[in-house]
Design a protein that fits this description.
Distance between the termini: 172 Å
Oligomer: single chain
Keywords: Signal
Protein name: Carbonic anhydrase
Structural class: alpha+beta
Strand content: 5-15%
Strand order of the largest sheet: 3-4-5-6
Helix content: 25-40%
Radius of gyration: 65 Å
Largest sheet: 4 strands, antiparallel
Shape: globular
Length: about 250
């Protein structure tokens, strides 16, 4: 009798345990135990917001739309490209008209404002002779350089002045003027008559290192009565000058 009660109690205990296990949801990981066998089930985590389904392109084939250019458009583009490549960019040029007043018509010509000399008179020649004598007189004075230059330089060109200085041996020129005469200077020849601008005078001297000095004189239309010397040459120097000048003129 006692064994039956014990067996019955054990059976009830096992049955109670199985029922409890089948309804127990507190097992870790949501494990359901049935008759001693555990089956793992995934329990979804509750969410307050249901996410929108993700858009996916997996498994889809992209649609490609083929655009075909019209023949006329292609030809126009090709022609434009060819023309642009073949046509050089024009370079701007500046035209310089050598005669800016050409074609504007003529008018009465204004006379030149620069005066000219067309002839030479005996009075002009006389003044030239006196000037040459005064120049050689100062040149052969034998005075110290300061006085010598003060008397001579106003009557000669600056280029001739530069040939002398304080250390020049001007004492060797000392002499006395005796005479002066016009000479035929071939370097002064001009077509149609006498040269109205230039004359050459030979001034003879006694006691100087040279027996004579050739003075080449010139004047301008602005100062027709005033002659100035461009050269004071000894006879040998004058002859060399004439030869060189004629050689240049005959080239």
């Amino acid at each position: 009798m006692t064994r039956k009660i014990t067996a019955t109690a054990a059976a009830l205990a096992l049955l109670a345990t199985g029922c409890s296990a089948s309804t127990d949801s507190s097992a870790p990981g949501g494990t359901l135990i049935t008759s001693g066998t555990s089956t793992a089930t995934s329990t979804p985590t509750p969410s307050s917001t249901t996410p929108a389904p993700a858009t996916t392109t997996a498994g889809r084939t992209p649609t490609v739309t083929e655009v075909t250019a019209s023949p006329s458009a292609t030809e126009s583009t090709t022609a434009a490209s060819t023309t642009a490549a073949a046509t050089p960019t024009p370079t701007p040029t500046v035209s310089l008209d050598p005669s800016p007043l050409a074609g504007t018509g003529g008018g009465p010509q204004q006379p030149s404002s620069v005066p000219t000399l067309n002839s030479i008179t005996d009075e002009d020649r006389g003044r030239a002779l006196e000037t040459a004598k005064a120049i050689v007189t100062a040149y052969t004075s034998g005075k110290p350089y300061k006085e010598w230059s003060e008397e001579l330089y106003p009557m000669i060109d600056p280029k001739l002045q530069n040939q002398y200085g304080p250390n020049s041996r001007i004492d060797i020129f000392k002499g006395t003027v005796t005479n002066a005469e016009l000479v035929d200077d071939p370097t002064l020849k001009v077509p149609g008559g006498d040269n109205p601008y230039w004359l050459t005078v030979c001034v003879k001297v006694e006691g100087s290192i040279s027996p004579a000095y050739y003075v080449r004189l010139h004047r301008t239309a602005e100062r027709p009565d005033k002659w100035k010397a461009s050269h004071i040459l000894e006879p040998q120097g004058f002859n060399s000058f004439v030869k060189e000048r004629m050689k240049e003129q005959n080239k």
